[in-house]
Amino acid sequence: MAVDHTAVAHPNIALIKYWGKRDEKLVIPNADSLSMTLDVFPTVTTVRVSPDERADRVTLDGAAAEGEPRQRITAFLDLVRELAGRSEAATVDTRNAVPTGAGLASSASGFAALAVAAGAAYGLDLDPTALSRLARRGSASAARSVFGGFAICYASRGISADADLNAYAEPLSVPDFDPALVIAVVNAGPKPVSSRAAMRLTVETSPLYWPWVQASRTDLAAMRTALRRGDLDEVGEIAERNALGMHATMLAARPAVRYLSPATVAVLDSVLLLRADGVSAYATMDAGPNVKVLCHPADAPRVAETVRAAAPGSAVVTARRGPGAGLRTRYQ
Ligand code: PMV
Which parts of the sequence belong to the Diphosphomevalonate decarboxylase-like N-terminal domain (predicted)? Predict the structure, then answer.
C-alpha cells in the first residue's frame, strides 16, 4: 500500500533577522533570530516513498522541478535517507500558496513542510527540536516555521560541542502580544539574487556586516523584553531598525545587493506618514522588495488601504499569528 505523507507549514517573518551563516554545509547561522509564524500562504507538501523509481520525482507548483530548486530538495531527501538508513527514491509534490522565491518566506514554509512530510515518509521519529534542526538544513528560516506563533532560532545554544545539535528553534510564549502583519506584495516575481548568494557576498565583503550582527544581539535582548511587555511600539521600532540594518549590510556589500525597489520605498514612506498620524505601524523587509507592516489588528484595514495607495497594483494581505508545521496523512 502506497502511503502519502502530506504536511502543511506556514511562512514566518523575522522580527530579528537571520542573515549570514558560519557553516554553509550545515546551514548554521551567525546569530540568533526571532520570528512570527503566519496564518496565510501555506505550503502543502506530499512525500511518498517510491521503491520502484530510480530517482526522486519532484513537482513544484504543478510543474517538474528543475535546476537549483530540484537540487535543494533532492539534497534534503538525501539527508533524510541518511538519517533513516534508507535508500529508496521519493515522489514529492509541493505547492506554495505564495510566489516562490520572492522574499515571502516560501523557503521557510517549504522546508518545514518537507521536513515533516519526508521525516514521516521515511519513518524518522523526531521531536520538535530535532525536526527544527532538520528543517534548518534546508533553509535556516525553516527551523522557525516548525513552530506556531513566535519562535526563536539559536545559532549556537551551547548544549553540546556539535554545531548541528546547537542550532535549532523553539517556541517563545508571548501571551500578551497578538499583532497583525499587513503584507504588501509589491512585486511577486522571483528575486534577482538568491538569499543564499546574497548572504555569502554580504558576509565576505560588507564592512557593515559584523557591526550589524553585534547590534542584532542587543536588538534580540530588547525584543524579548518588548514582547513580554506586549509593547507594539517598542517591538515595531526594534524590528524596523533590525531589518533596515540588514538591508544596509547588503547595500554595503561589493558589489551591492539591493532588494528594495521604488515601490518598497513608497510603502516605507507611507508607514512613516501613518506614524506621524498616530498609527502604530512598523515595517520589515526580507530578501525581496515586499514590505510587511506590523500594527494593531484594529488598525490593519487603515494600514492596508494606505500601503495599497502607496504602491498601486500591489496585492495586500493581512496576516495574524499562525500554526506550526503538521502532518495530514492519507492512505491510498
Ligand atoms: O532561510 P533563507 O535562506 O530563506 O533566508 C532568509 C533570511 C531572511 O528572510 C532575509 C531573514 C529571516 O530571518 O527570515
Answer: 9-155
* CATH at 294: 3.30.70.890
State the CB neighbour count (10 A cutoff) for residue 137. Answer: 22
Render 136-164 in DSSP notation, one character per residue.
HHH-TTHHHHTSSSEEEEES---SSS-HH
Q: How far is the CA of 286 from the centre of ligand 1 (A)?
A: 7
Local structure of residue 40 (DSSP, 8 states): S
Residue nearest to atom 9 of ligand 1 (CA): 286
CATH number of the domain to which 156 belongs? 3.30.230.10
Spacing of C-alpha 187 from chain mean position: 18
Q: Which residues line ligand 1 (CB under 6 A)?
A: 14, 17-19, 33, 107, 139-141, 195-196, 286-287
ipTM: 0.98
Distance from the CA of 53 to the center of ligand 1, in angstroms?
34
pLDDT in tens, 241-281: 999 999 999 999 999 999 999 999 999 999 999 999 999 99
Cα distance between residue 56 and residue 158, in whole Å: 36
Q: Are residues 29 and 150 in the same domain?
A: yes
Distance, CA 87 to ligand 1 centroid (Å)?
31
pTM of the model: 0.96
Q: Are residues 146 and 37 in the same domain?
A: yes
